[in-house]
Every structure is written in C-alpha cells, then in structure tokens.
C-alpha cells in the first residue's frame, strides 16, 4: 500500500478520542460468574488517593510494590508505589467460562520502566480477542521527549510503547466492530497515533536512533466453530515474542525475532540489534502469519525480560509450568510468575497469558502437570551444579560429588547445547520462515 493509499484509509478514531481507549462502562463493572460479557479488557486503573500500601511480604522477604487488579474492576486491590519499595510490579487477572487470563508487568528501575502494560481483551459476540505486549527500545529511544505535569521526564521509548498500546487498543475495538484484522490495518493505526505523539528531534543522529521506538508482539484469535476451532494470527515487530502452549506439545513459538540471528539459544548468548521495530520516523513492518488451531490451548506473549535472561530456551516454559503447579487461582499464578521473573531478570518484563477451553483453573493446572514433570525430568534435573538458579524443592535431587568450578562454563555450554537440541524441534514447529526463505 502506498503512502497516498494509507492517507485515504486514515483510522476513524483520532487521537482526540483517546479517552475511548478505556473499557466501556459495562466492562468496568465486576462480572458475574458464567459466560463472559459482550466486551471485557484488562487495563490498568489509577490508584485512588485514599489507598495505602499493603505489606505482602513473606518471612525474610522485602515488601513488593505491585498493583493487583481483578480484571478491569475498579474494586480490585491496588498497592500504590512507594519510594522505599523497589522494583514496582503489577498483576492483573480475570476468568470467565472457558477463558482465563492474566498479565504481569514489572520495571527494573522504579518509575523508569519502558515496557507498557500488557493489553488483553475479548469480544464475545464476534468470538475474538487480542493479547499484546510492548517493549520501548531504550537504546534507540533514550532521549527525553515529554515531561509530565509533576516534572517527570519520559523517554522516546517510554512514550512509544504506550502510544503503540493505545493504537493497538483502538485498532482491536474497530476489529471487534467489523474492521478486518490484518497487519496492514494495525500498521495504519500505529503510524497514525505515533505521528500525533510528542516527539523531539535530537541533534545527535545515527543509524540506531529512532523516534518513539518499541517492539510489539500480539496474538489475535478468533473462535471458528462450536467444536473449538481457532484461527490464530500472531502480529509482531522487534524481538518480543508470541507463543502457544499445549499440554501435549509444550511451548511453541509463533514469531521470529527481527534480528539477523534467529536461533533461540544463540540469542541468549548474544545481543544482536533489531532490524525492524515500531517507530515514528522510519518505515517498519508488522509481520504476521495465520494458523488453524484447536482448543484447549494457552496463548502467551512476552517481552525479552521474561525469556531473554534464562540459561536455555526450555527454562521459560519450565518457569510458566512450575508457577502454574504452585498456584490455585489465576491471581496466584500471576503472582508466582511475578516473583519468579523478578528473581532472574535484569530488564523490565511484561507478559500476558490467556487459557482457552479450560472450564476451571484446577483443570488447567492438572492437565499440564504431566508436561511439567516431563520438563523437570529432561531439562531441570540435568542442570549443572553451580548455576545461579536454585531448583524448587520438587525438582531437588541427591547431591552429587563436588565438581571443579573451573569447568562450569564448559559444562553449562554442553548442557545448553544438549537441551536445546532435544527441545528445538517441538518449539520451532510454528516458527515463521526467514525472509530469504519466503522469496
């Protein structure tokens, strides 16, 4: 599509209508049990002035800062940020008949997190929904571009991620009303909103610098029939990822990072620059593919703060399923994931999860128990001693004889190569082809 054609198809919703991005009034009320309402979304709500921090710490654990909400309900629990509590963290969760959703958001530096809050929404009449994450690219967008009323300065990456979230929110509302869900229409909304956002031209220029740069990873899904048929459409730009998780097949990636290296293990060992990401000053691509799938399954989207700081690709799935087995509700699962990621990541981290086709959380947990045991037996128990992660009690094994610390790097590399070779085929079954393979 040419730039002229795009201007003729300008999104109907202008930035002046930004408040419409909040959920409709009905969607902001507590939901009864049973089938979902016509429209619901999990979105952050500002804390009320009367609320005070609640101490959720355990024995010997520092109090955490998080905002905890029951979906979009204004009656959810909210813990307000405090200067002496670090780092801030928030979780959201919601459940309805055959739909269970949660999201987790953390920032490494208090008040400076460049990931936007995850977006999760479902439209019942059309049987479709969307979950997405946005990671502002701090390296390419480190320059300040906006200042809040309280004097807080925000970087180009911080603004870019949140504007992209708003554009995606508005786009999905139009899609749920009948507009076609395509990467081209999402691209139009992103370009339109980014062009209207605050920008500041820097005197410092370079090939890596961008205006309002952010990654985007989303999954748009549509229920096709009463037998549980699904159409999945992952949409992405940058190195955030989308996955589908099944109890019989494990975690399967649906996106290919926009980097010159695409091997998941090598990406853990190196940090290549992105070749494509959403931004306001250069052209970008929203990549996509369409898949037919069946319920039940679990959809996952995450920024690299979750999967980029593990030792081997199976570790991310192990973390998701271990925390699932430790939880009894969606809220507990979100909280366990929040605690776990904060124990290993060195970056902002955001994630959204949507389970489709499981009547109860208990059934979801029970059906993934065998898969978790398989992962623990194949990839966790073989872990070289001396790695920084301590196995959970359920994964503990008898201590072997002490090993030479000098040989740890070689043992770790061998273990990484071996586990990745065994895990890779199933993980990459839906990996999109490389650009050169599409020609």
Automatic annotation (TrEMBL):
Q: Where is this region: Disordered?
A: 1-88, 383-407
Spans of biased composition, class Basic and acidic residues? 1-11
Fetch the InterPro entries from UniProt: PPM-type-like_dom_sf
Biased composition, class Pro residues, residue ranges: 21-38
The protein's name in its UniProt record: Serine/threonine protein phosphatase
This protein's species is Streptomyces vastus
Q: What is this organism's lineage?
A: Bacteria, Bacillati, Actinomycetota, Actinomycetes, Kitasatosporales
């Amino acid at each position: 599509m040419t730039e002229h054609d795009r201007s003729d198809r300008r999104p109907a919703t202008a930035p002046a209508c930004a408040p419409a991005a909040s959920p409709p009034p009905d969607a902001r009320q507590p939901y009864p049990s049973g089938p979902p309402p016509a429209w619901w979304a999990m979105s952050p709500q500002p804390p009320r002035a009367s609320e005070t921090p609640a101490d959720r710490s355990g024995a010997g654990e520092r109090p955490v800062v998080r905002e905890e909400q029951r979906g979009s309900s204004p009656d959810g629990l909210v813990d307000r940020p405090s200067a002496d509590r670090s780092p801030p963290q928030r979780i959201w969760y919601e459940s309805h008949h055959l739909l269970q959703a949660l999201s987790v958001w953390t920032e490494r530096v208090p008040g400076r997190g460049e990931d936007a809050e995850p977006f999760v929404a479902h439209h019942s009449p059309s049987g479709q929904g969307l979950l997405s994450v946005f990671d502002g690219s701090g390296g390419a967008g480190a320059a300040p571009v906006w200042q809040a009323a309280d004097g807080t300065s925000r970087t180009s990456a911080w603004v870019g991620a949140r504007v992209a979230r708003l554009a995606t929110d508005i786009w999905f509302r139009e899609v749920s009303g009948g507009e076609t869900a395509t990467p081209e229409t999402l691209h139009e909304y992103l370009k339109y909103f980014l062009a209207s956002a605050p920008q500041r031209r820097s005197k410092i220029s370079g090939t890596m610098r961008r205006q309002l740069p952010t990654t985007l990873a989303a999954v748009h899904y549509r229920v096709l029939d009463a037998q549980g048929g699904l159409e999945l459409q992952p949409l992405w730009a940058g190195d955030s990822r989308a996955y589908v998780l099944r109890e019989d097949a494990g975690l399967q990636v649906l996106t290919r990072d926009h980097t010159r290296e695409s091997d998941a293990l090598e990406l853990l060992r190196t940090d290549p620059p992105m070749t494509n990401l959403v931004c306001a000053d250069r052209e970008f691509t929203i990549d996509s593919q369409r898949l037919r799938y069946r319920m039940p399954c679990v959809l996952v989207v995450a920024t690299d703060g979750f999967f980029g700081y593990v030792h081997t690709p199976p570790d991310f799935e192990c973390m998701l399923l271990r925390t699932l087995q430790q939880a009894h509700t969606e809220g507990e699962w979100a909280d366990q994931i929040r605690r776990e990621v904060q124990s290993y990541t060195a970056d902002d981290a955001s994630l959204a999860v949507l389970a489709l086709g499981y009547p109860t959380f208990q059934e979801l947990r029970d059906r993934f128990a065998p898969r978790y045991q398989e992962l623990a037996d194949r990839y966790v128990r073989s872990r070289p001693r001396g790695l920084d992660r301590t196995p959970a009690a359920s994964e503990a094994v008898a201590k072997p004889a002490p090993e030479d610390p000098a040989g740890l790097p070689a043992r770790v590399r061998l273990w990484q190569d071996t586990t990745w070779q065994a895990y890779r085929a199933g993980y990459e079954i839906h990996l999109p082809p490389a650009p050169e393979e599409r020609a």
